[in-house]
Design a protein that fits this description.
The chain is mainly α. The protein has one domain. The protein contains 17 helices and no strands. α5 runs parallel beside α16 and α10 crosses α15. The longest helix has about 50 residues.
């Protein structure tokens, strides 16, 4: 559900970004940062067949989950509930959905524009929608980042610049999640069961540790590398095979952390306001996402405390962050129903779940599908023309030089 970029996906899916590209200094015309080989590396993780398989799995889990909720909550009169939905609030919720797309896109665009003034805002919109679609149909939402990088790359930006932008927006996202977890615990600790409050506390701890590690990695790379080396050494002493694997990972991370740290310090020394701007835009992005749930309730003619609704949505984001299923499918529908049961009657939980998922994910996914499949068609056509040109050139060479 996050339309921002997923930094861990860069490594987990094996997108081949060189250390030079990661600095974000290469220009759009640099052959090493914008050639067909870079496109091929990214497309290897988001091929048409994988997309269709992921989409089929996502749809299957979603349909089964909604059907199960319908049976378990004894929901009746769903059509009647939709017929009585307030059209004015429906229109306003559509506006918030579009604003969500714009905010997510602009959050990336302000960085990309500083790195490459030729990048257009609509490119950032397309990249954001591609992120939403591919992230929703890949496990742990891991494919969203590479899809976003690919769209920027196809429009002339370097992959390194896109990774750079995703990294710092990801840091801002963690800060917002930490604040959201703290507020949610304060507001909901007495209303939710111990299971959900436990999730909030664990999320708060995990996000805080992750934030501290990333800050240390970018600001004190030598300290981070030393810490990783100690962990690797102790692991190797007790678990040799795991230690060797961790050692190879540490060597690769060490090189890239140093390069990335130097680049980030150089960038922010000339753009000091970009860090607070990223935080403000990320906060606005997620408050808008959370507000969509509140306007859906108003459209259903249900009044509730605004802070309670916002806090519940923050808990939901914490749950979905750890969800292994594509787009959080299944887990999201049941979590929404369980959390919103403190506000909604059982018979309205399916309607709310369907509407919230539609505005936050299903509808943006459809737009993102058009973007990514169009990009794949264009890339396939260009690749075919390139191969034909290479074949023709080779044939001509043989004729000229028997």
């Amino acid at each position: 559900m996050d339309s921002g970029g997923n930094l861990p996906a860069v490594r987990l899916l094996g997108v081949g970004v060189s250390p030079e590209e990661e600095t974000g200094i290469r220009g759009a015309d640099d052959p090493e940062g914008s050639g067909p080989q870079s496109s091929s590396r990214i497309l290897g993780t988001i091929s048409r067949r994988r997309l269709r398989r992921g989409l089929a799995l996502f749809c299957s889990i979603t349909i089964v989950s909604l059907a199960a909720l319908f049976v378990l909550t004894r929901s009746e009169g769903i059509l009647e509930a939709f017929q009585h939905y307030d059209t004015a609030w429906f229109g306003f919720t559509v506006f918030l959905m579009l604003l969500d797309v714009v905010l997510g896109s602009y959050r990336n665009h302000v960085f990309m524009k500083r790195l490459d003034p030729s990048v257009e805002f609509m490119t950032s919109v397309r990249a954001n929608l591609a992120n939403t679609f591919v992230g929703a149909i890949t496990p742990s939402q891991g494919g969203g980042g590479p899809a976003q990088f690919y769209v920027y790359h196809r429009k002339g930006g370097s992959i390194g610049q896109a990774v750079f932008v995703a990294a710092f927006n990801y840091l801002s996202t963690i800060v917002v999640f930490i604040c959201g977890a703290a507020v949610s615990y304060a507001v909901l600790s007495e209303r939710l069961g111990s299971g959900f409050t436990g999730v909030v506390l664990i999320s708060f701890i995990v996000f805080s540790v992750e934030f501290l590690l990333l800050v240390v990695a970018f600001s004190r790379p030598q300290l981070f590398i030393s810490l990783m080396s100690r962990i690797t050494g102790r692991t190797k002493a007790h678990f040799p095979r795991l230690g060797r694997m961790l050692g190879r990972l540490t060597d690769r991370i060490s090189l890239e952390v140093e390069t990335f740290s130097d680049s980030s310090r150089n960038f922010f020394s000339h753009n000091r306001m970009m860090i607070p701007l990223s935080l403000v835009l990320t906060l606005a992005l997620y408050l808008n996402k959370y507000s969509i749930a509140y306007t859906i309730l108003l459209g259903m003619c249900i009044r509730s405390d605004f802070m309670t609704v916002i806090s519940i949505q923050a808990v939901l984001m914490c749950i979905l962050y750890f969800s292994p299923s594509p787009g959080g499918s299944g887990i999201a529908e049941f979590s929404i129903a369980a959390l919103m049961s403190v506000i909604l009657p059982e018979s309205r939980l399916v309607v709310f779940s369907l509407l919230q998922r539609s505005f936050l994910l299903y509808l943006p996914m459809i737009l993102g599908a058009f973007v990514i499949f169009h990009e794949i068609r264009v890339f396939s056509r260009v690749s075919d023309e390139s191969r034909e040109g290479s074949t023709g050139h080779a044939t001509s060479s043989k004729v000229d030089h028997p």
